[in-house]
């Protein structure tokens, strides 16, 4: 068909063409319903009306749905890349930016054309013959930052340091202190490295002790606690380039910039122009840790790994600290329920047809997109890094897959969440629970099609008070969290010998080799037995005795899920409330049987604790914080309001429980909101819609209203309040028909024998840093998923997992 006819057709459709404005979200890097890009065989089509992007096949679905006929077609072709391009050492924790990690991605050049559907007529761009409105529309699209990149930048970078509020008016004491150019030592111990100069009084003191025992002896931070002198600079990081020096603000609790650092140093006789760098800054140490990960066993480094491709073997590109998401999604999409719901039972065009006008904000659409991307095999083809014509037979070391970037899914699933919407590293467990919550909400009213139900089970807590009477409380959960009892280690003698040897070597100034390290080895069975053991509950209010007492709680499972997820509690609090990651192996067998954990309910001869009808007492007890708990937490430096909330939300169970709650809720947006009391809120109207929502969870209406009053109308806090109140047992009583129907009958249940089908491992000292990797059993063999790298696993580290996924074996 002639270009004249195409031009005439284009002019007749100008009313369907829009010129983008600053507020428009423009997609031009990836299809909204598949992972096609301008690099794909068919290129990418940008709808010049909606500014959504579609692949070669999906663009016709969009035309059928919307009738929009005019598109900008973008096709990217690879430029030749010089093989001798030098590999630069990164100076910034970032991917794909100047100074960041060089991922050696090839460069592409793009060609553009205007396409008119349904006949796929093409006109060249740029061209002065095109209507001005079309030219302005395309120019606006090409000039704009793509929504994909704007919403989820593929960068892993430290925050830019802010100027300290204490720098300009910093007080400096005239005490005659002159700092020599070298030979520094801590004023309170013998440390000669990791030293910090306090910029107020010139004291040289060692830095903080790390969780693993390395670092300093906390003398610098203790000096701040005593004097409140705010700023310190790390000796060994001071050079003529003062901006590179590591300045720390204790009251601001972060590395900062001191614009007057030169003046502050000269006060103590320091000629910074002659100093040389001898220490790593905080940011450099973080960079060094991330570029020198020595977690060989978990990542199976140094082994000839066979790269895998095809259906179910598609890697996920790291978007910048997104490995937590990748490891969870790879594991979740290896379960039957998620495969059926978002791949086998939904085609892409069907999900798109049901999606709203903007499919990027529809969770079902983005999960179907991700499921098809990961499971179809379409995007899992080998890419050879050498000569593509004369490929040797054994090019496994030079073959890789590009993987797919889950940008749109990550942007959507993290919307409104302060952590998952960021590019910071996150806890894989928290993300897993967040994902299940989103999926469940997205399938509200359709439990039969909700894949998150395959993980859900009922925990039954039996509480025995000294009166001899009992209460049974039921709660829903998706994960069984297990403590790791180190006293149950099967190699205690070897560990004791190792610790003795380690102490001797350290006293002699020697270091242990990695192969000399002996870690405690604890059987998984011991962790499960620890979960089943009776637990003391102090300050328990007995409705039979009308007073507080010590009760005993035992936990059992009232239902067994199709997929059982075990969470190993490797992050604990040491004496002095110092967080620590347990350096321990857990022996996890391929088959487990938890049938002995099945709950039996109310037994013959047992008498239930009487119900308490005094709602006022119930509300008041729920709002009174134990002063002893609050005082202990406050003495550690936490705000009193936070301490009171921690005590209340853990029902005054104890300091450790309150501390754990506090550490996990410090970033809550409402953490500084005033505590609302039952008496204050008793007259406030209750949203009946929220009441009905809580009732749908299996609780009584009265309990729902009490919880909402106690939580100021916040449904999440209301649910936490219910679970934290032993007195609300009637809400989940085993004889309650509503609770039973919700918690028992609607959930999958079966035998207690399970087979290990996958596990997620964590490397690093904290869930907020490090790296996550997934190992999954597929077609009878173990496969490692390390972001976009997918390979056969020759030696899966089953004893180093953080989350274990078991599938029912019968």
Automatic annotation (TrEMBL):
The keyword S-adenosyl-L-methionine does not apply. The keyword Protease applies. It comes from the Eukaryota. Residues 162-272 form the UBP-type domain. GO terms for molecular function: cysteine-type deubiquitinase activity; zinc ion binding. Residues 624-665, 685-725 form the UBA domain. InterPro entries: Papain-like_cys_pep_sf, Peptidase_C19_UCH, Ub_carboxyl-term_hydrolase, UBA, UBA-like_sf, Ubiquitinyl_hydrolase, UBP13_Znf-UBP_var, USP. Zn(2+) binds at residues 186, 189, 206, 219. Its EC number is 3.4.19.12. Keywords: Hydrolase, Metal-binding, Protease, Repeat, Thiol protease, Ubl conjugation pathway, Zinc, Zinc-finger. Pfam families: UBA, UCH, zf-UBP, zf-UBP_var. SMART domains: UBA (SM00165), ZnF_UBP (SM00290). It catalyses: Thiol-dependent hydrolysis of ester, thioester, amide, peptide and isopeptide bonds formed by the C-terminal Gly of ubiquitin (a 76-residue protein attached to proteins as an intracellular targeting signal). Residues 314-809 form the USP domain. GO terms for biological process: cell communication; protein deubiquitination; proteolysis; signaling. The active site is at 323 (nucleophile), 771 (proton acceptor). Recognizes and hydrolyzes the peptide bond at the C-terminal Gly of ubiquitin. Involved in the processing of poly-ubiquitin precursors as well as that of ubiquitinated proteins. Belongs to the peptidase C19 family. This is Ubiquitin carboxyl-terminal hydrolase. The lineage of its organism: Eukaryota, Viridiplantae, Streptophyta, Embryophyta, Tracheophyta.
